[in-house]
Each structure stands twice: as structure tokens, then as C-alpha cells.
Amino acid sequence: MASLNVGNLGEYLREQRRHAQLSLRQLADAAGVSNPYLSQIERGLRKPSAEVLQQVAKALRISAETLYVRAGILDAERDRDEVETRAVILADPSLNERQKQVLLQIYESFRKENGFGTGEPAGGAGDGMADPGTGGGSRTAGAGGAMGNDTDAGPRRTAG
Hints:
Elements: H1 6-19, H2 24-31, H3 35-42, H4 50-60, H5 64-71, H6 76-91, H7 97-113
Helix pairs in contact: 2-3, 2-4, 4-5, 5-6
């Protein structure tokens, strides 16, 4: 029992690499890490830094946050729902990359509107923003984007 989540991280990385149909060498090259180092991560012998995890996530086209949670860098209890939602969006094969990014931006804007920042708190919108989101948010949420301060959100360039 060298470390808590490293084995789980390694198994998950191997599964994601195989799902992406990449060899260990291909993923190592794409992520900019050495083949032996990546092999050690997959076998649970090494705990990679957040930087390395971000490079691997980018190469696998998965959420870096998911890897952070599996590596024990992010608090799993606090961030699990957000991370899982992002991971599901990013893993959806029916969406192209642009659609995934737009959907993630919309999701993030709704979380901010409802007082939940992404990553680090953005200016303490927690308590003050909780009440406005509970009233009538479901009437026009799909029509005009986030219903908060951005009233001129109509002419966005999302259909391209």
C-alpha cells in the first residue's frame, strides 16, 4: 500500500488508453512523457504531478479533473458531480469537439449563476447568488443562455 489512489489511477489510465486505441508508446509520445514513466504510472508505481496528468488527459482527450480526482489531487466528495458531468460530456461520441466545448461553457455558466464556481471560487458568489437561482429558472433557461447578468447573450456564434 504505497499510496492510496495511484493503482486506481493507473488502471483507469490503461482503460482509457485502450479505449482510445493507443499503445503505451503512442500515448507517451502524445503526452510528452517517457514510455517507462507512463508504464510505471499505469502499474501504480509512480504518482504523477498535476502537470503530467494534464498532458496525459489532453493526449487521451479526457477531463484532467477526472484524473486529478483519481490521483487524489482534487477532493472527490466535493468535486465528483462536476467532474463526472464534464467527463460524460467529453466522452460522448455523438458530439464533435466544438459542441463539447460549447456545452461545457454553458454548464459552467449555469454553475456560476447558481453560486458554484469551477475550480476555485470566483469572487465569493456563493451565498448571495443562491436565492435568485431558486425562483423561476426553468421558464426560459434554454432560450437565452444563462439568465443572470448577460442579457445581451442572444447573438452568440454557436451555429457554425
